[in-house]
Amino acid sequence: MAVSVKFGTCNDAHNVIKKTATLGTAKSAELKQPTSVESPYFIVDSGSISNTDNYCQCSDFSRYYYIVSIDELPGHRKGVQCVCDVLKSFEASILALPVLVERNENTDQSYINDQSVTTYNRMITTYKGFSGNKLTKAADSADRYVILMA
Amino acid sequence: MAITQVGTTVEQGITYGFSKWCNQLFADGDWKPSELAKYSWCRWKDKYIGCCSATSTNIQSQQGAAVTQMLSYFNSSLSETSNNYVTHYNDDRIPTNEPYCFNILMYGRRGDQTLTSDCASNYRVITSCSDFQSLYVLVDKYQPAQSTISVNYPTARTVNCNNLQWANGGVYNTNNDAHAQWITVWTVFVIDEDNFFVTRGMAFPGNTPCMYDGVMGAAQYNLRPSNDLSISYGNRITESKWRYYYGDITNYQKTKHLLRWYKNGITGIEPQTWGDSKTGVYDVDDDVAIIMRSENAVYGNINIRYTYYLKSEEAVKNAIAYTGLRWKYQNGDTTHVYTPIIDDDGFITGYSTNPDAVTKLNDITDVTGNNISPLPPTPTPPSPTPGIWDDMPGAGSSIGALAGARCYICSKTDITNLKTWMSKTEADGGPPDGYDVLSSLISVMAFPIDMTPASSGPATPISFTGLKTSTDNQLANIAAALLSIANQVGATPITEIKTFTSTATAFPSAGNPFTIDLGTCDCPTFYSSDFPFVDYDASVELYIPFIGTMSLDTQTVMGKSLHAYMSVDPITGAIYAWCECTKDGSRVVVASGSGAFGVNTPITANQVGMAMAQIKNNAAQQRQTAIQSALTLGVGAFAGMDKNISSILSRNMTQAIGQRSANIAIATGRDYMDALSVGASQAAMTAIPNAIGANLNTGRANRQIAQANHNSITGSAGGSTADWSCSYTPYLKVITPDVHRAGEQYEHTYGIPTIQSGTLSSFSGLTFCANPDVSSISTATDQEKQQIFGLLSGGVYV
């Protein structure tokens, strides 16, 4: 069965949802039998793929794939082993998921205790004085006695 | 007006106080039995005077039949049971009340037997006696009368008060006839406040025979039914009880008061009238005779005189005993000392030769102040004049149980000078003799700071205004002395002790609390965007002098501006401090505490403990009221307040939240002062200066720390040394953990804890999802969904 595949590159990490991929034109490719949608094996003419390509898209499968390996085949052909990039393939659906986020890089909720914070075995002590009046120790000549009389 | 002591004289080692001249007392309106009774030591009801007294009827202008008619009252066969003597008299002249009697000492010449307007200028009332127990009457031995009738009677001398007789004249006697000065016993017979008689109790001038000379005299009245009467001419007995001098007495004149004087209803009235120049003796009973003598035969002549004549030794002893003094009676070579028996009510009931006889005489240490008269009522002290402390929320009160209480602020030098003044005699400018200054001093409170605003900041100190000016109040003497001392030592003359005005806020006058504004302090925060916020691991402590350290709630105060205050109670020495911050637009009390600011040294020690307890009890009630009022006003600041505040200060929350009430009503008002019971216990003269030093070494008060929304503690962190060795500077102490800062990579690679919900697209950057629900990704295979689940849980970059 022949499918249409675009080969190219993608430098984003695997756990990036909104990947940016640079893909070429669609090439015709044969599928090795048996093969799966999640991990297909494409057979293409040697000129359809570069040995530096690491990413591809198969519109027939509606998926994006990481190129796992590229095999040299007889008859001036190459075999490409791929594995599905689920984040890119289902990007819209994933981004639309209602989720409960436990940790986030850019959250404004700073008051949750983060048990992962590493602290030293010492405390920082800061003293701050008040801006108002200081009590002055009284001298003997000061009026600091109160006599209660009947 | 009142009879008061105006001077003293020392005779035979005994100091006597005396009043103004009796005529002056009369002119001043002080010549009243209630006043005289204040200087008596006993009272008595004697059989010899147990009757009604009456004024005399002046029959001088009546002659003939009118006289006869008047005298017919006596001529009729009157008897005690069949006739009512009262109806035979002018009721307005004859009181029917039985008089009460008491003895006083008079200081003056000895020649008068009755106190009249003629002689009142020669006598003064003895108001005090330094050794009353040493006074006694000296009585000569009992001797038979020199007469043909075996009537035995003892002779007696003038009361010899411990040999007080001295030379003629003297400064107190302007009479040039050189009467000797005596201190003698006088008797006051009282009908009511306006009808009373003052007469010699034991005056026997010269060598007249012993007789209980009961004369009646009051200023401006000269009723003299009595006189010394010699019966040395002898007498003879007749069939009746009358014994006549010259022949038979055929007519007589009698004054009603005489008859009424001796026993109410004398039986056996002589039915005949006196004749001229007659002298006779009427034997009333075995103890008493009435001697009558007319000096001339003119009708209406008021010189008819009558005398009680004590016929028996027993009668004489009783009569002497009723002076309320001890007396010595010599019979031959034997001297007997007789002690009057005075019961608990002050009545003389007899005498005893037993030196150990129970008698109230032994309880009398001074003549002054023994007000034993059953009527009129005891003079009451004047109502205290409302003082400047009245209606003031602060210290001192001139009403209530603590009338006249005052607080005075002073320096140690002032106190030392006060002690010096107290040790002086009155002659040297010290307190009045006999006045115990310490009895007016309840306590001395020492404070660690100057109670003036200059050194303590622009506080609102207490106004100790007003020296009590009442001359009747001994406090005025002390206050005046302080003022005088202050002036003497070169201090700026002051008309009042320390009146302050506040430059910050106008406060009511006297009695307001002493509030010190400690200012503000910004509590730092360690949160920033560079590293995780760790303030929740920090601790914040507040130190306020004399209160101690208080823990603050981190979340409340971190990053906030804190404002601290102190209020001082100068009466009890307690201090109350609190700290506020603004949260959500409202001022919230985040900490409060109380402690002992002043150290109190009791002078009248047996009262201070009770006094302070009363103050605290009342203050607790005041605080409760204030808190309740605050809560009803919706003051959220007190929500969750630690109800166990042991501060004795209350807070006046009359202002809405967001505004600090400027009037911190320290519990020094008169309500607490009224509870004080002012007593006096003698303390050593050295107590004050020593106490000043000693009180500075008192130990620490208890501390109690309670953790709550805001915290309160009690106790004082200082006061254990003479200098109150503690920090005088309030401060904020923030303790935070030292965090290992990983830099920005921490957030980017590890994220920050958050609990937020939303679509994943609303987040950015590294995001860890908790148990994401991926079931809605319908186009993904099951394996792919598991991968998605794992990636979202393990962190993705959005």
Structure explained in plain terms:
The complex is a heterodimer of chains A (150) and B (798). With 150 residues, chain A is mainly beta. Chain A contains 2 helices and 9 strands. In chain A, strand 5 and strand 6 (77-84) form a beta hairpin. With 798 residues, chain B is of the alpha+beta class. Chain B is 17% helix and 25% strand. In chain B, strands 1, 2, 3, 4, 5, 6, 9, 10, 16, 17 and 18 form an 11-stranded mixed β-sheet that branches. In chain B, a hairpin with a 4-residue loop joins strand 28 (704-706) and strand 29 (711-714). Chain B starts with 6 loop residues before the first strand and ends with a strand. At the A-B interface, helix 1, helix 2, strand 7, strand 8 and strand 9 of A face strand 19, helix 6, strand 20, helix 8 and strand 21 of B. Strand 7 of chain A pairs antiparallel with strand 31 of chain B.
How many strands, which pairing sense, and closed or not: the largest β-sheet of chain A?
Answer: 6 strands, antiparallel, barrel
Order of helices and strands of chain A: EEEEEEHHEEE
What is the CA-atom radius of gyration of chain A, in angstroms?
Answer: 34 Å
Major sheet description of chain B? 11 strands, mixed
Which blocks of ≥5 consecutive residues of chain A have pLDDT under 50? none
> N- to C-terminal separation of chain A?
116 Å
DSSP strand count of chain A? 9
Radius of gyration of chain B: 44 Å
Mean pLDDT of chain B: 54
Average pLDDT confidence of chain A is 87
Topology, element by element:
The complex is a heterodimer of chains A (150) and B (798).
Chain A: E1 2-10, E2 21-31, E3 41-45, E4 55-58, E5 63-73, E6 77-84, H1 86-89, H2 91-95, E7 98-104, E8 119-129, E9 145-149
Antiparallel strand pairs in A: 1-2, 1-4, 2-3, 3-6, 4-5, 5-6
Chain B: E1 7-11, E2 14-21, H1 22-27, H2 33-37, E3 43-44, H3 64-75, E4 100-109, E5 123-129, E6 136-139, E7 142-144, E8 152-154, E9 181-192, E10 195-200, E11 236-237, E12 242-244, H4 256-261, E13 279-283, E14 288-293, E15 305-310, H5 313-321, E16 326-331, E17 334-342, E18 347-352, E19 406-410, H6 412-422, E20 441-446, H7 453-456, H8 474-488, E21 514-522, E22 539-544, E23 548-552, H9 554-557, E24 561-568, E25 574-583, E26 586-596, E27 599-602, H10 605-632, H11 670-673, H12 687-694, E28 704-706, E29 711-714, E30 731-739, H13 744-750, E31 752-759, E32 766-769, H14 782-794, E33 796-797
Parallel strand pairs in B: 3-18, 6-16, 26-29
Antiparallel strand pairs in B: 1-2, 2-5, 3-4, 4-5, 4-9, 7-8, 9-10, 11-12, 12-13, 13-14, 14-15, 16-17, 17-18, 20-27, 21-24, 22-23, 22-30, 24-25, 25-26, 28-29, 32-33
